[in-house]
């Protein structure tokens, strides 16, 4: 009986589960020790915890996995909860410790595995910084030249392959051109390469790969490429051959020319003119007719590339060896883009287009427009933009907002500021109502926009009722009020969300305020922009508003948002920008800009894919208190704008 009890006794024992938090930073080991400003942190690193020593940082038998991100203070932060079981506690039944291994990996760095001893339960364990050695390096510039028997040659395709890249794949492509009055020059800039030894060097080869040239001497240039390299390489000699097909670029400009008593000669670009090219693809036989149509851009310019074949060598000694020329008929049809104020007189002429040079056609000029010349722009009003007050609790953010409000009240009349736009991250939790109370002291109307922090910290559904008096004032005093607010089923996440989208017209300018803030609670994804492309989502409202703006005067539409309509980290994915561009591009002359915040910096971002500019305004809550003052001008043709970034004195 004693023996049975001895063996049965341990089976009655049960293990306890212990929980502890781990946190820390992953940093770049190559950053100078003096750069302790948060910039040495590495975002996007994968951090894995193991109870047994792993074979590598990629061992799939991990206990937990997380990624590093910016926590609002610095890059490279991670935080995760760890649970383990133990039969016998190190202290008592309430506390325990656990030895673990941390594996850290990132595509641009050497992975590491670090032992961490005595993780303590029931507390947050701040681990020492994990410092990674970079394996991603960059050579600054390689420069060389290509020459034929007759001298330096522009337009030659030169490729660079890094170690491990085999033909036909290439890493970088350059074309020889004229630089500092020197022809035939090619340059490779900012050449990124991976060196898993972390020594900062690799092998690179440079070759001429262009069907129009043969017998390169040397066949290739091989060199050891170093981090921060800035190097000149020897010239490459080539022979020119006659290709099977020729190509040429044709460029031109269309504008409206007139003379005024006050300004003298004046020309204005004409956008939306369709340019027609006609030629025979087989220049030798005069067969296979081809045509191409392009449209002038907002600056009145157009560019097109045509191709043709010609088996015979022209008996024209002015044509360089291996080149060719062809006659192309160019037509500018009467009329411009729908809704344009300009029409272009019909034009039709034949031009000789050459394969070895850029072909600039004569300017298409309309000297007898149907519209009146532009009048002198007159100021209509000004509006102010400020962003990211970040009112929560336990800091000086409210004082900074009070400083901003006081400055606007003191300067609104003298500067003609009649409207304020607050581009998101205004306040949340206990800070939302104090933020509203302070903004209510503004002497001018204001338009608040929801930000990602209102969502992340639980004030998503409080935003609309908190600003109820603002919606009432704007809808009663602004023209053409439209809104899409309140709960909607979020088809992307399968939850209920509250979106805050509205629009109004003030002195003929259409303001569209859009809620692009993420509803995803993932530490990284919650900082990204999302279109919310579903019924009741923000994109539905945005698209309707853009389509309804067809009658606006050029530059008469302004989009406000917290997250900028840009592509990249902290903003939008490229495919979502393409979706936006599908709606906005046709109205590019009507859309002036997107005013946004979120980046905590001042920025000026041209976004051709969506047909408008992005202006980002710095956060109020940290460093300088910045207000962007925008003066609005108008003539008989369009709106125009002038900006001033004002640094408001604070703490002096």
What is the gist of this entry?
With 652 residues, this protein is mostly beta strands. The chain has four domains: 2-132, Immunoglobulin-like; 136-240, Immunoglobulin-like; 246-366, Sandwich (Immunoglobulin-like); 378-648, Metallo-dependent phosphatases (Purple Acid Phosphatase, chain A, domain 2).
Describe the structure.
The protein has 652 residues and is mostly beta strands. The chain folds into 4 domains: 2-132, Immunoglobulin-like; 136-240, Immunoglobulin-like (Sandwich), CATH 2.60.40.10; 246-366, Immunoglobulins (Immunoglobulin-like, Sandwich), CATH 2.60.40.10; 378-648, Metallo-dependent phosphatases (Purple Acid Phosphatase, chain A, domain 2). Strands 9, 10, 13, 14, 16, 18 and 19 form a 7-stranded mixed sheet that branches. Strands 32-33-34-35-36-38-37 form a 7-stranded mixed sheet, sandwiched between helices.
CATH superfamily of the largest domain: Metallo-dependent phosphatases
Low-confidence stretches: 1-13, 32-37, 335-343
What is the CATH domain class of the largest domain? Alpha Beta
> What's the mean pLDDT score?
86
Global morphology: flat
Major sheet: size, sense and barrel closure? 7 strands, mixed
CATH architecture of the largest domain: 4-Layer Sandwich
Strand content range = 35-45%
Total number of domains: 4
CATH topology of the largest domain: Purple Acid Phosphatase, chain A, domain 2
SSE-based structural type: mainly beta
Radius of gyration (Å): 32 Å
N→C terminal distance: 85 Å
Quantity of strands, as a count: 40
- DSSP helix fraction: 10-25%
Q: Please, how many helices?
A: 8
């Amino acid at each position: 009986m004693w023996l049975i009890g001895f063996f049965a006794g341990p089976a009655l024992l049960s293990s306890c589960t212990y929980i502890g938090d781990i946190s820390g930073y992953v940093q770049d080991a190559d950053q100078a020790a003096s750069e302790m400003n948060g910039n040495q942190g590495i975002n996007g690193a994968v951090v894995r915890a193991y109870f047994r020593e792993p074979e590598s940082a990629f061992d799939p038998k991990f206990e937990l996995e997380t990624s590093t991100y910016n926590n609002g203070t610095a890059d490279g932060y991670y935080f995760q909860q760890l649970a383990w079981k133990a039969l016998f506690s190190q202290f008592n039944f309430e506390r325990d410790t656990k030895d673990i291994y941390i594996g850290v990996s990132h595509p641009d760095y050497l992975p590491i595995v670090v032992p961490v001893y005595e993780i303590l339960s029931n507390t947050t364990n701040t681990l020492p910084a994990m410092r990674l050695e970079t394996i991603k390096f960059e050579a600054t510039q390689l420069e060389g030249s290509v020459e034929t028997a007759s001298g330096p040659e522009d337009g030659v395709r030169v490729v660079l392959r890094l170690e491990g890249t085999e033909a036909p794949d290439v890493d970088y492509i350059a074309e020889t051109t004229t630089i500092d009055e020197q022809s035939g020059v090619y340059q490779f800039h900012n050449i990124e390469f991976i060196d898993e030894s972390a020594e900062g060097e690799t092998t690179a080869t440079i070759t001429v790969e262009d069907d129009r040239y043969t017998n390169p001497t040397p066949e290739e240039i091989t060199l050891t490429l170093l981090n921060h390299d800035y190097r000149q390489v020897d010239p490459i000699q080539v022979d020119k051959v006659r290709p099977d097909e020729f190509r040429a670029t044709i460029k031109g400009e269309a504008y409206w020319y007139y003379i005024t008593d006050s300004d003298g000669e004046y020309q204005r670009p004409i956008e939306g003119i369709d340019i027609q090219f006609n030629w025979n693809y087989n220049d030798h036989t005069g067969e296979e007719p081809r045509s191409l149509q392009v449209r002038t851009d907002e600056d009145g310019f157009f560019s097109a590339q045509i191709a043709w074949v010609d088996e015979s060598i022209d008996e024209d000694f002015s044509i360089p060896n291996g080149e060719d020329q062809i006659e192309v008929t160019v037509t500018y049809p009467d009329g411009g883009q729908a809704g344009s104020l300009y029409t272009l007189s019909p034009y039709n002429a034949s031009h000789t287009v050459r394969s070895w040079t850029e072909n600039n056609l004569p300017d298409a000029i309309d000297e007898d427009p149907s519209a009146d010349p532009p009048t002198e722009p007159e100021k209509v009003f000004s509006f102010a933009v400020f962003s990211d007050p970040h009112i929560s609790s336990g800091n000086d953010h409210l004082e900074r907002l009070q400083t901003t409000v006081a400055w606007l009240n003191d300067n609104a009349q003298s500067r003609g500021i009649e409207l304020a736009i607050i581009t998101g991250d205004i306040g949340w939790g206990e800070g939302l109502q104090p933020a509203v109370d302070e903004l209510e002291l503004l002497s001018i109307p204001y338009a608040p926009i929801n930000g990602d922090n209102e969502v992340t910290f639980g004030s998503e559904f409080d935003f609309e009722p908190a600003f109820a008096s603002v919606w009432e004032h704007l809808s009663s005093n602004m023209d053409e009020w439209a809104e899409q607010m309140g709960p909607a089923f979020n088809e992307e996440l399968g939850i209920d969300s509250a979106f805050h989208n509205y629009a109004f017209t003030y002195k003929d300018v259409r303001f569209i305020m859009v809620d692009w803030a993420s509803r995803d609670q993932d530490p990284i994804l919650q900082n990204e922009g999302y279109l919310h492309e579903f019924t009741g989502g923000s994109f539905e409202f945005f698209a309707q508003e853009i389509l309804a703006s067809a009658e606006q005067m050029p530059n008469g539409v302004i989009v406000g948002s917290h997250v900028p309509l840009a592509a990249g980290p902290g903003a939008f994915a490229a495919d979502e920008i393409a979706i936006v561009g599908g709606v906005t591009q046709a109205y590019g002359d009507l859309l002036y800009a997107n005013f946004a915040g979120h980046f905590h910096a001042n920025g000026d971002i041209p976004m051709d894919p969506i047909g408008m500019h992005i202006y980002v305004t710095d956060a109020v809550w940290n460093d300088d208190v910045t207000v962007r003052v925008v003066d609005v001008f108008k003539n008989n043709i369009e709106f125009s704008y002038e900006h001033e970034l004002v640094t408001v004195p604070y703490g002096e």
